[in-house]
Design brief:
alpha/beta; Rossmann fold; nine-stranded mixed β-sheet; two-stranded antiparallel ribbon; globular
């Protein structure tokens, strides 16, 4: 807990909301939490992640021969807090065990090629230098959207009032039978929290589609300059629509895991990082990305991280909008495992 692990509990001893410590809870808004406490030789990160996946019934919608895509976050050169490959290998091994098929792990090309080389080459070179490869991850590691980043299929956002109508989902995701979204949680200057909704939506698109969703918004506000409030809200709503289209592309077969580990103030696609804003809080999983991100936000706030004040993005409103368009519910039950 934050008051014991080096962090600060927001508002004194405020209890965690919606916590069920024993037994399962039916429904899509169930969020499973395995914390980072009690580490030992027989209770490592690998053990904790395996226990989380088991409790979340990760293989419930998988059958023999299904192709599973794992959307991960690889970090840019200069960002020093990326997840270690073993954090991603554990889910990859579980997906392979259940489906009897080697899973695909993927991330999307950066929108800016800092090093002015071929973008696909640059991405793979940086990823390998960070330790991400087919061998270390336990699955086929590829660029979502193909080597150019622009290969994908068009999917509807699924409701009549959609601004985008549809978006191109990258090939590695949309040509799979199921999707596991493995998100390294960070703060995000335009979206508030980079978690299930962001990584399972905007970050699953082809590079061309992401540029369309941005529509003039600079995703790299290094100098602190922010877009006008109305333009920022419009972008956030477009980004939320993406998560619906991505889920349509895998026919609803999606699992979301948030890694609250080295939660930095900058997302992984930035070429630098400040020190983490919160102590390591462990790992959360859910079938509902809105409930998962709501629980993530509450845990961060409980540790003194002012998400809205620190990023300038109204993440509470984002979660509410996500619920309104049918992505899930911000009401959740948090089931904590020992």
């Amino acid at each position: 807990m934050c008051d014991e692990g080096g962090g600060r509990r927001r508002g004194g001893s405020r209890p965690l909301p919606h916590v069920a410590r024993e037994g399962g809870v039916a429904g899509m808004n169930r969020v499973i939490w395995v914390d980072a406490e009690g580490m030992s030789f027989d209770n490592t990160v690998a053990h904790k992640l395996a226990r989380l996946l088991d409790a979340a019934e990760s293989g419930a919608d998988l059958t023999d021969g299904m192709r599973v895509a794992l959307k991960v976050n690889t970090s840019e050169e200069g960002y020093e807090y990326g997840l270690r490959p073993v954090f991603l290998r554990i889910p990859a091994e579980e997906a392979r065990r259940v489906s009897n098929t080697r899973p695909t792990l993927c991330d999307g090309l950066r929108l800016v090629d800092y090093w002015r080389r071929v973008r696909g080459n640059t991405f793979m070179d940086v990823a390998r230098a960070k330790g991400y490869s087919t061998d270390t991850l336990g699955g086929n590691f590829v660029i979502n959207g193909g080597f150019s980043g622009d290969e994908g299929n068009l999917y509807s956002c699924g409701f009549a009032e959609s601004v985008l109508g549809g978006v191109e989902v990258g090939t590695a995701v949309c040509r799979s039978d199921a999707l596991w979204v493995l998100s390294h949680v960070t703060l995000h200057p335009l979206f508030g929290v980079s978690g299930a909704l962001w990584n399972g939506g905007f970050e699953c698109l082809s590079a061309r589609a992401r540029t369309r969703v941005l529509d003039g918004i600079n995703p790299y506000p290094f100098n602190g300059a922010r877009p006008p409030a109305e333009a920022l809200r419009d972008f956030q709503r477009r980004a939320l629509e993406c998560a619906l289209a991505v889920k349509v592309s895998v026919e609803g077969k999606a699992l979301y895991v948030n890694y609250l580990w080295d939660v930095t103030p900058q997302p992984e696609y930035f070429p630098f990082s400040d020190k983490p804003a919160a102590p390591n809080l462990g790992f959360l999983a859910s079938r509902d990305p809105v409930a998962l991100d709501a629980a993530t936000r509450d845990l961060l706030e409980d540790c003194g991280v002012d998400v809205e004040g620190g990023t300038g993005a109204d993440f509470k409103a984002i979660l509410q909008w996500a619920g309104e368009i049918g992505s899930g519910s911000s009401e959740y039950v948090l089931e904590k495992l020992s």
